[in-house]
From TrEMBL:
The lineage of its organism: Bacteria, Bacillati, Bacillota, Bacilli, Bacillales. This is Histidine ammonia-lyase. The gene is hutH. It catalyses: L-histidine = trans-urocanate + NH4(+). One of its GO terms (cellular component) is cytoplasm. Its EC number is 4.3.1.3. There is a cross-link at A140-G142 (5-imidazolinone (Ala-Gly)). GO terms for biological process: L-histidine catabolic process to glutamate and formamide; L-histidine catabolic process to glutamate and formate.
Length: 491
């Protein structure tokens, strides 16, 4: 997969992250990088005063640095800014950071040497992934703390994930025959002054959310069969007159999943209307798809954006300190995705309640094989309710918060990395809720008769039963939830 700085898509990123595609660099764009680098070298040689090249950083931007110390300036920057704390980002997120940073620098506006981009790509292809603590970014001036831990690895410092181990970067580089890089003027700042931590986390979260959203509809279709749901609510005409494309497509998929089922009913056959958690699946899930489409658009813009500072234009004739490092577009997108995915869990939990509550259906109470002696799925619903409640606290928007930093020079920040991290956690919680719905739905359709299911749902049921066996006796259901959750993530 070739990167150009301008054309990276989520499909490309997926191939690098999960299919381990080899990354190459567009040579024509390296020429733009070389031009930008010559401009930086000229600025240093002529002692022009340019932020981040021969000045301090943040509140120290007015402090001029002697030409003899510009390399030390970059080293000090990375060391002092490597203040990340907490558990590391998942390894796949670290891999995404390398890819996104390389792609951004390849645009040619950052003033780095080609070797910096080449080394980032070499790390990807050698599967050397920096250990990057999750906490410590304010999401403006970029992801300074997280990306500093990434930059350490290029210098042979810090830690990496490599061949299933967490080891010193210097050791991994040596095993791959790579020498540490000494950062030159502007390069440390170019590596850390960007939004690649929040965007990488956002990309991984989005890819998981998209997959989960599709699975949520198939699970919901099985629930409809388990409850003898009314198929009329998914009639195409109903959704066309509302006009939302995502709602129309969701209803279309629901009709396809349930085509040929003898477990669905028509209006008035058993009841006139279903509850909203069944009847309004296209409206609710469709609205979440609207958000995911929005998030996808913003991520694909940001993945191909120049987000450091200053930016170098016209072969160095114009060097501007701007604010492209500010993560507000991604912060808002991540907060929006948090709400959208949390809603998939909210409506799923209500469907779980309808599957287990004997006051709401004609199935055995709590789907128990021996009601009373055995509790069946009673506490499965408790766990789902707990996860949904936790999601509601995580869904509080991070982007509405801002704490000034760097002596009030950086007086408004995005908290976008927090938003992305919380979005990812909501996705993990939601997958568990949907796993619980799947377990309950499979049990319900067994009582109805699996021979009466549609071809698509029956195939899904049969695959699911390979993971979670039928409930014929109370057992430790947390193990079933874990297995179903892992299957939904990886299948």
């Amino acid at each position: 997969m070739k990167i150009t700085g301008n054309s990276l898509t989520l499909t490309d990123v997926y191939q690098v992250l999960y299919d381990q595609a080899t990354v190459t660099i567009c040579k024509d764009h390296l020429q733009l990088v070389e031009k930008g680098r010559k401009a930086v070298d000229k600025i240093v040689q002529e002692s022009q005063v340019v932020y981040g090249i021969n000045t301090g950083f943040g509140k120290f931007s007015d402090v001029l640095i002697n030409v003899d110390y510009v390399k030390e300036l970059q080293l000090n920057l990375i060391h002092s800014h490597a203040c990340g704390v907490g558990d590391p980002f998942p390894e796949v997120v670290s891999r995404a950071m390398l890819l996104l940073r390389a792609n951004a620098l390849l645009k040619g506006y950052s003033g780095v040497r080609p070797i910096i981009i080449e080394r980032l790509v070499e790390l990807i292809n050698a599967k050397i992934h920096p250990v990057v603590p999750q906490q410590g970014s304010l999401g403006a001036s970029g992801d300074l703390a997280p990306l500093s831990h990434l930059a350490l690895v290029l210098m042979g410092e810090g830690e990496v994930f490599y061949k299933g181990r967490r080891i010193q970067a210097e050791t991994a580089l040596a095993e791959e025959g790579m020498m540490p890089i000494s950062l030159h003027a502007k390069e440390g700042l170019a590596l850390i002054n960007g939004t690649q931590a929040m965007t990488a986390m956002g990309v991984v979260a989005y890819l998981e959310a998209e997959k989960l959203a599709y699975k949520s509809e198939l699970i919901a279709a099985m629930t409809i069969e388990g409850l003898n749901g009314i198929i009329d609510a998914f009639d195409e005409d109903v959704h066309i007159v509302r006009g939302y494309p995502q709602q129309i497509e969701t209803a279309k998929r629901m009709r396809a999943y349930l085509s040929g089922s003898r477990l669905t009913t028509r209006q008035g056959e058993i009841r006139v209307q279903d509850a909203y958690s069944l009847r309004c699946i296209p409206q609710v899930h469709g609205a979440s798809w609207q958000v995911l489409d929005y998030v996808k658009e913003k991520l694909e813009i940001e993945m191909n954006a120049a987000t450091d500072n200053p930016l170098i234009f016209n072969d160095g004739d114009k060097v501007i300190s701007g604010g492209n490092f500010h993560g507000q577009p991604i912060a808002l997108a991540m907060d929006f995705m948090k709400i959208a995915v949390a809603e998939l869990a909210n409506i799923s939990e209500r469907r779980i309640e309808r599957l287990v509550n004997p006051q709401l259906n004609d199935l055995p109470p709590f789907l128990s094989p021996e009601p009373g002696l055995q509790s069946g799925a009673m506490i499965l619903q408790y766990s789902a309710a707990s996860l949904v409640s936790e999601n509601k606290t995580l869904a509080h928007p991070a982007s509405v918060d801002s704490i000034p930093s760097s002596a009030n020079q950086e007086d408004h920040v995005s908290m976008g990395t927090i938003a992305a991290r919380h979005a990812y956690q909501i996705i993990q919680n939601t997958r568990k809720v949907l796993a619980i719905e799947l377990i309950c739905a499979m049990q319900a359709v067994e009582y109805r008769g699996i021979e009466n299911m549609s071809n698509k749902t029956r195939s899904f049921y049969q695959a699911g039963r390979m993971i979670v066996p039928s409930i014929i006796k109370d057992r430790i259901f947390s193990k079933d939830i874990e297995k179903a959750t892992e299957w939904l993530k990886n299948a």
